[in-house]
Amino acid sequence: MSRVIGIDLGTTNSCVAIMDGEDAVVIPSPEGARTTPSVVAFTQSGERLVGSIAKRQAVTNAASTVFAVKRLMGRKASDENVEDMAASTPFAIVAANNGDAHVAVGDRRYAPPEIASMVLARMRETAEAYLGESVGEAVITVPAYFDDAQRQATKDAGRIAGLDVLRIVNEPTAAALAYGRAAEAAERLAVYDLGGGTFDVSILETGGGVFRVQSTSGDSFLGGDDFDRALVEEILRRFGERHPGVDLRGDKLALQRVVEAAEKAKLELSSAMETDINLPFLAAENGAPIHFESVVTRGELEALVEPLIQRTIAPCRRALADAGLAAKDIDVVLLVGGQTRMPRVQEVVTEFFGAAPSRGVNPDEVVAMGAAIQGGVLTGDVQEVLLLDVTPLSLGVETAGGVFTPVIARNTAIPARATKEFSTAVDNQDFVNVHVLQGEREMAEDNKSLAHFQLQGIPPAPRGVPRIEVALDIDANGCLTVSAQDLGTGAAQSVEVVPTIGLTEDDIERIIAEADASAELDKARRELAEVRSRAEALLHTSERALEEFGDVLSASEYEALKADLEGCRRAVERGEAEAVKAAVGRLETSSQRIGEILYEQAGGG
Amino acid sequence: MTSDTHDPEGQRASGERGEQASGGTAHSQDGHEGAEGGAERAAADSGEAGEAGPEARIAELEKQADDLRDKWMRAQADLENHRRRARKEVEDAREDGKKRTLAELLPVVDNLERALEHAGTATTDEAKSIVDGVNLVMRQLSQSFDRLSVQPIEAEGKPFDPAVHEAMSQIETAEVAPGAVAQVLQRGYTLGDKLLRPALVVVAKAPEREESAGPNGKSPDDGEER
To answer: Which residues in chain A touch residue B226, judged by CB atoms under 8 angstroms apart?
Structure first.
């Protein structure tokens, strides 16, 4: 039985977890890291790098190092968020033929799901290496505000990565699951998620087996990284006060040491009241070394970042207002994201909601763990939680005056079907346009268009007389079918909604084929690297053996070994895996002859 | 559940229907042993009550047995995987402990090295002798690292390799080949075959800027790093 992994596909970092008996556990990468940077790079030699290794080469290859692709998922290039992002990223964001935002690297274009799939594939490999078995199914989390196109794009990414995506789960819902909240209990939850680069707050309501996301808000450019930067600035300010003539900003290494010291100090101040920043030989002035030493107290750090913490309050207010609730209506507050470890953040959250937040689950890993639990629910390994999927946004049609009329309200548990009757707007109108949209805004144009079709052949009648029934049907997988029927004539028309954004089936098939091909290429490259390093080690030991003990060999054996050595060296230079392998085999046999003779002599003597 | 072929409701339901059916119930109760024979007999005499008859019961039990066998095999497999993983986890934990300890110590080593870089200016005999002493401490340290299989990463002049090098910046130079490490800012280390800390390096690029501006109309290295 293949297991279901839970993946938190993050903007900056991703995390994978799995059910181990009763518990969700995070799977560390082979390098021992519990999260993997969501960074993908394409090198000049055509190699594809994912994770830390991609991050480490970013400055040398900035135009071909793609990060934060989550911000592009399921979005049009003309989207203002995308335009903002395009202005600041060193890699190019371009419009695809259908207007989707794509990433251009060299002369190749990548759909965001393609890039995301490379991160997901890495997470899958991490899980497979840990479990020692292949993994085919996954639950992936997305922000609660993701619309249909963004969710579909995430699903596509999973498919390209060779994963059957059983469910797309909202991040706050996953967090609630990991905190052990039951969907049966009637509760109101606030999920406060302050990550590395983004802040999200969601108001959830549970009951009847459903987690309903009532509202979300946030700040997509506020996170723990800003806290680090504030402390770095403070350290630089203190240094500048003591050594006005020395500019640390121009010294990459010194700056890097300050950044690391700031990150460490920030973490320490979550448990200690003060910490020492100790940077000997940080710089030099007139040839004399400058040492830097300074004490930072928790209070000082808090004063520095207080404006950042206060910036989270307005989104919390908005989320409550959108949900029609007051802070006191919230029963439980859940903390997600590493920055929520800071005591002052917890204090501010407690003050605002009037309830102490739940703790005890690692806030960096809680979302991935929740995804794993959801995976366990789907395979039947976890029984206590019943969890239904809901539509994240309202679905409806455009009516007279460009008004959006919802047919299926958001947070309706799916599968769901709903109908609404409409009529004509002018006399003798013989057709109606059905424009299907998704969103919460009042005007159709502010929502996301999903499909257009026409119901024709309506018999002449005064306006308002014909009765047209529009039915929206979402199946368990979230696929939408829309039909319209003239109740007078019985004439009907229906369409399966294929998002006008995102990848087509053909695109996905093509990308999967390409991914397989490049996986083979990567494999070949890896094999060559492995066999080459084996060959180099063997060359080294064989040469030494030949030098030291070559005289025990007969002249012909000596020559044969030398020939094999030379053959192996040439094979390594040519760099063909098979040839190297064969040469290594030959050299192994001929060089072992030395050992054999030596042992025979030792045994005989 | 509407079908009465499932126990225990099924047995009770058929029991109420009279002798024939209750005979069937008896069969299914000892059906564990005489399953085959029971099935034939039941097929012959159960008549219209057959839906609750022995063959259904046998099928039921066979299914149960299959289910249990399947569960048992999975439990076995799980246990085996668990053992294997537990061993690996112990190994990883040991490795991880070592990694953490060493990672904490490396900055101290860096600073000792920095101290020695500045030591060339020592003039008095006393100062020189202290420098010699510290040099010996460094040698001792590098021997300890050897024994712990901690190896410094070769970087200077080597082709930039993000597996073990972290690029801090690029520099235009003709001294080393483009794409090679021009300068090591901080030494990196491996622990066995694992990376302990990447070397922080400056990477060379060709002096004339032949590469065109980025596709955005920006040069590839302006803008934010991440």
So the answer is: 12, 39, 55, 58, 67-68
Q: Specify whether A419 is located in the same domain as A548.
A: no
- pLDDT confidence bin for A202, thresholds 50/70/90: very high
**8 Å CB contact of B214 and A63:** yes
Please provide the average confidence, as pLDDT, over all residues in chain A: 87
Residues of A with a Cβ under 8 Å from any B Cβ are 1, 12, 28, 31-32, 39, 41, 49, 53-63, 67-68, 86, 88-94, 104, 130-133, 252-253, 256, 280-281, 284, 287, 289
Residue A491 and residue A515 in one domain: no
Using the 3D structure, point to which of A350, A380, A410 is the last residue of a domain.
A380
With 60 as the cut, is the pLDDT of residue B147 above it?
Answer: yes
Interface of B with A in 137-166 (CB under 8 A): 160, 162-163, 165-166
Residues A420 and A518 in one domain: no
Q: What is the CATH number of the domain that holds A151?
A: 3.30.420.40
A171 included as an active-site residue: yes
Question: A337-387 pLDDT, tens per residue?
Answer: 999 999 999 999 999 999 889 877 899 999 999 999 999 888 876 665 555
Chain A contact present for B215, CB below 8 A: yes
Out of B163, B186, B221, name the one closest to residue A62 (CB): B221
Same domain for A138 and A240?
no
Is A297 within 8 Å of A273 (Cβ atoms)?
A: yes
Residue A356's domain comprises 183-222+312-360
A339 lies in a domain? yes
- For A86, the closest chain B residue by CA position comes to B216
Which chain A residue has the Cα nearest residue B74? A1
Question: A156-160, A577-581, B136-140, B210-214: which has the minimum mean pLDDT?
Answer: B210-214
Query: Which residue's structure tokens are 């008896």?
Result: B26
Q: Which two tokens stand for residue B175?
A: 């001294």
Cα B194 to Cα A30, A33, A380, A535, distances in angstroms: 9, 12, 38, 20
Domain assignment of residue A575, yes or no: yes
Among A349, A380, A411, identify where a domain stops: A380
**Tokens representing residue B210 in the block:** 């032949």
pLDDT for A604 equals 56
**pLDDT of the residue at B13:** 37
Do both A559 and A443 map to the same domain?
A: no
Of B81, B92, B121, the CB nearest to A132: B81
How does DSSP classify residue A458? P
Indicate which CATH number applies to the domain containing A289. Answer: 3.90.640.10
Name the domain count of chain A: 5
Phi, psi of A516 (to 5 degrees): -60, -45
Cβ(A289)–Cβ(B118) below 8 Å:
yes
Annotated catalytic, A430? no
Q: Are residues A453 and A317 in the same domain?
A: no
The pLDDT of residue B8 is above 50: no
Is A23 found in the same domain as A163? yes
Q: Which two tokens stand for residue A116?
A: 């995301």
Q: Which helix (H) or strand (E) holds A482?
A: strand A480-486
Token duo for residue A143: 């922000």
The whole-angstrom separation of Cα A389 and Cα A212 is 9
In a domain, A410, yes or no: yes
Nearest to A281 among B111, B169, B205 (CB): B111
Helix (H) or strand (E) holding A548: helix A505-549
Residue B21 has pLDDT above 70, yes or no: no
CB neighbour list of residue A345: distance below 8 Å, 6 or more residues apart: A194, A309, A312, A339
Cβ of B170 and A60 within 8 Å? yes
Q: Are residues A90 and A173 in the same domain?
A: yes
Best probe of the A interface among B67, B82, B153, B218, by most A CBs < 10 A, is: B218
**Confidence (pLDDT) at A260:** 93
Residue A319: predicted pLDDT: 92
CB-based contact B12:B18 (threshold 8 Å):
no
pLDDT in tens, A340-351: 999 999 999 999
